[in-house]
Specification:
The chain is α/β, with parallel strands linked by helices. Helix content is 46%, strand content 13%. Strand 2 (86-95) and strand 3 form a beta hairpin. The protein starts with a helix and ends in a 5-residue tail after the last helix.
């Protein structure tokens, strides 16, 4: 199956015009553009998609979030369709004290129309923490920054005829948030909002915002096995698309299948995606926002004291075992009661998510924790086992 990279190679020689107007795949390209490493490029106010990408073609693999970004910038640099589009107002704002990770860029389309492209989660722990904050907090800082960015664009370009917004992953959520939170006189200028495997919103948020008014201009696409996009609720309808890979790897939109001018639709979400959605919903129903906040804050403090990037944990999860053990031993009874409730609900949700889809290599440990009469002692026992495997039998 062909992907968005094949589309760029095929359609790249046709500038945007009445004969070759914007199509569904162009919005995929524009939405992904903000995830590129602009902060490594010296730039002026007169840059284009092509001028940025020409510089990035000389970059090594490391600055790019995912492997597909490397051929992506080469194809844009060589593309008549995208290379001449003016790019302005790049913003990157990561602030640890606010637990905020935000970046966006404005792309100028023909006919005084803008596309605001919002960056998804980057490769920092800060970015992942803000994603988790959405489970207990409406209006996270990046969402507020996205709204401010959209409002400023509308004020900065008074001759604007229309506005699109979009993003991949968290960037899709930011685009949707900005669109529905704009004042009503500005919402009329929004031509379309594009979210590619972006999380949804809480029921509380949906009930209090103008999502119904915007629904016919909101275009949400989720791969068959979506997990990120099944977090929280989508009040708008969404399309399910085919991918060339399985399971979690489908979050990479360079794996999504395309036809000449559109994404290839799938009949429905996979069983695994539906079970994950139901599992997350169960977790949110069984715990309070305050309880989730307490547990996530504790885990995050341990993680950030012992790792710099998510990849550090992926490479060696054992770096968290000793500090986690010490933290557990110092917790008081009240905190343990909260941790027990949240983690039991989380384990139930996890089991729901993998049921009938596949077995976890930690199934035995998960069931021990779920069924233990004394969660605290069961957690100590399992962590001690992990520590013993790690350091040859010594614990502390």
């Amino acid at each position: 199956m062909q992907t968005i990279l094949d589309y760029l190679a095929w359609r790249g020689d046709l500038p945007i015009s009445e004969d070759a107007p914007l199509n569904e795949l162009d919005f995929v390209v524009l939405s992904r553009f903000s995830n590129l490493p602009f902060y490594d490029v010296y730039h002026t106010e007169e840059e284009t998609m092509g001028s940025f990408c020409s510089v990035m073609t000389r970059f090594p693999r490391e600055p790019f979030q995912i492997a597909g970004d490397v051929p992506f910038v080469k194809l844009i640099a060589d593309s008549k369709r995208f290379s001449t589009l003016r790019v302005t107002d790049y913003v990157k704002d990561n602030r640890k004290e606010l637990e905020m990770q935000f970046a966006a860029v404005t792309i100028h389309l023909p006919g005084d129309v803008l596309f605001l492209s919002f960056c998804g989660t980057d490769s920092t722990l800060l970015g992942w923490k803000e994603n988790l904050n959405m489970s207990f907090q409406d209006d996270v800082p990046a969402q507020c920054a996205a709204l401010s960015y959209a409002a400023n664009a509308l004020k900065s370009y008074p001759d604007l005829k229309g506005l699109y917004m979009g993003g991949h992953s968290k960037g899709g959520n930011l685009a949707a948030y900005a669109a529905v939170c704009l004042p009503s006189e500005y919402r009329k200028l929004v031509l379309g909002v594009f979210s590619y495997d972006g999380p949804g919103f809480s029921n509380k948020f949906i009930a209090s915002h103008a999502i119904d008014e915007m629904a016919d201009r909101m275009f949400t696409f989720l791969p068959e096995g979506s997990t990120v996009g099944r977090m929280l609720e989508h009040a708008e309808s969404f399309e399910v698309v085919k991918s060339t890979v399985d399971n979690l790897l489908q979050h990479d939109l360079y794996t999504w299948a395309v036809e000449p001018l559109k994404l290839v639709r799938a009949e429905k979400s996979s069983d695994g995606s539906e079970l994950f959605y139901n599992g997350v919903r169960h977790l949110l129903e069984e715990t309070t926002p305050k309880q989730r906040e307490l547990v996530l804050a504790g885990v995050y403090s341990i993680v950030t004291a012992n790792a710099v990037k998510p990849k550090d944990i992926q490479d060696d999860f054992t770096i968290l075992l000793q500090p986690l053990y010490r933290q557990m031993r110092s917790m008081n009874r009240e905190d343990w009661a909260v941790v027990t409730k949240v983690f039991r609900a989380f384990l139930d949700a996890y089991v729901l998510a993998i049921r009938d889809v596949g077995q976890s290599k930690y199934a035995k440990e998960i069931n021990e924790l779920r069924n233990a009469e004394n969660f605290q002692e069961a957690a100590y026992t399992l962590l001690n086992r992990a520590l013993a495997r790690w350091n040859g039998g010594r614990t502390s």
